[in-house]
Design brief:
Blueprint: H1 2-10, H2 12-42, H3 46-73, H4 76-92, H5 103-131, H6 137-166, H7 168-187, H8 205-221, H9 224-230, H10 232-254, H11 261-287, H12 291-313, H13 318-346, H14 349-379, H15 385-410
Helix pairs in contact: 1-2, 2-3, 2-5, 2-6, 2-7, 3-5, 3-10, 3-14, 4-5, 4-7, 5-14, 6-7, 6-11, 6-13, 10-11, 10-12, 10-13, 10-14, 10-15, 11-12, 11-13, 12-13, 12-15, 14-15
Length: 421
């Protein structure tokens, strides 16, 4: 942990970016638990829960390509601040959802919230290399993953307790406040990225946007190995998207604690947080930061995700569920961190926002398909939760098999097979 603390001490810009992530992620998990609990109380249907996750995923798919264009054209810190402020305003609207006939408003506001999140995520990933040195990218990404995971563990646990004791309204209010605090931390970052606004270029915004998209896709087409890294998160999302949906009924109906599924769900999210946080740290300490080590890390991530999902499908007790969830989280966290670092190191700055946005688009599409499948199989086909989880585990094996030839092709290189353009 010494290297992570050192980075925070000596880099005030990254420290403020990290503080923004801490408070924002904490509120996010309050929001998710409160939303899932509210939907379960107002509807109780697995499809209704799937619609909640789709409302969180589909906006990311639709708007991410345009978000990438904005991230490459405008000053990135300013975009991050505005998305936080807008999300705070949207989340306050959740306070109006208080009866079944207003559940549509929950879906609408969730969709709007994640339209802004679609701008925040690729912009933050593209902005990070401007805040930290190239040698610190692995450390910064690993700490970012640890932060997300720690806030998942802490936020899920506290969110479960707060939602159970104080109600969903207080959880939504706390989430809005965290977005405002996150925006304040972002204003304290002195590092600015270079932007080139559309209006300043003397060409039509639509024509320029089309040219920018074509440029990014053409770059990917000429770097086929890079496409493999872009699709890593999407491969994982084909598995964990459906699992996310099933965790709610698993906690509410199969393994509630004294009849309270919210507390069980909080523990499940805590196990995910521990796995996704500790996994990348452990794998990095074992394999290091080399090109070959990062390729090995992605492979380990796929294996751990498969093992954990199989364990979840066979779980007879809540303790078993938590252990399998930890292993699955270890795998997904490792996939997330090392695929992000590989892309940040390989991509040129002028294209980074668009490529990360494309990665996020494919990722959210895969996650949405998996989410819809899980809800449909559970509701319409009346599959048992264990059966749907088993289908997710088999999907994980298929995804790992697809990764294997790519891994075998690239593992022999001691460094990246192509430099950033």
């Amino acid at each position: 942990m010494h290297g992570y603390l050192t980075l925070l001490r000596r880099n005030p810009g990254f420290r403020n970016l990290w503080f923004a992530r801490v408070v924002s992620n904490l509120g996010d998990w309050f929001n998710l638990l409160a939303s899932a609990t509210l939907v379960a109380n107002l509807s109780g249907a697995g499809t209704a829960i799937s619609f909640l996750f789709l409302a969180r995923f589909l906006p990311l798919f639709v708007t991410s390509p345009f978000a990438g264009l904005l991230a490459d054209r405008f000053e990135r810190r300013t975009l991050l601040i505005w998305t936080d402020l807008l999300r705070a305003a949207v989340v306050l609207g959740f306070l109006l959802v208080d009866r079944p006939e207003r559940i549509w408003l929950l879906y609408l506001l969730t969709t709007l919230q994640f339209v802004f999140s679609a701008l925040f995520t690729p912009t933050q990933q593209a902005y990070l290399p401007a805040v930290v040195d190239a040698d610190d990218l692995v450390t910064a990404n690993a700490l970012d993953s640890l932060t997300w995971s720690a806030m998942l563990a802490i936020g899920a646990l506290l969110g479960g307790i707060a939602t159970a004791l104080l109600g969903v309204q207080m959880a939504f209010l706390l989430d809005a406040l965290t977005f405002l605090l996150s925006a304040w931390f972002l204003t304290r970052i002195g590092v600015r990225s270079r932007g080139q606004p559309l209006a300043a270029l003397g060409r039509s915004p639509l024509r320029l946007a089309t040219q920018d998209l074509i440029e990014g896709m053409r770059y990917l087409a000429h770097q086929p190995l890079l496409i493999g890294f872009v699709l890593v998160k999407a491969g994982g999302a084909l598995v964990w998207g459906g699992v996310n949906v099933l965790e709610v009924p698993l906690a509410e109906t199969v393994f509630p604690i004294d009849g309270n599924g919210t507390l069980s769900l909080g523990l499940i999210y805590t196990a995910i947080g521990l796995g996704t946080g500790l996994g990348p740290l452990a794998v990095r300490s074992l394999l290091g930061d080399s090109w070959r080590g990062m390729l090995h890390a992605v492979s380990i991530g796929f294996v751990a995700m498969s093992v954990g999902t199989f364990g979840l499908a066979l779980a007879p007790t809540l303790g078993w569920v938590l252990a399998a969830t930890f292993v699955r989280g270890l795998g997904t966290g490792t996939l997330w961190v090392f695929s992000a670092v590989l892309l940040q190191q390989l991509l040129p700055d002028r294209l980074r926002g668009r490529i990360f946005a494309f990665e996020f688009t494919v990722f959210t599409l895969a996650q949405s398909v998996s989410t819809l499948w899980a809800g449909y199989a559970y509701d319409q086909w009346a599959w048992e939760i264990s059966q749907v989880l088993l289908s997710a585990a088999l999907t994980s094996v298929v995804v790992a098999a697809v990764w294997l030839p790519f891994y075998l092709r690239t593992r022999g290189a001691s460094t990246a097979p192509f430099p950033p353009a």
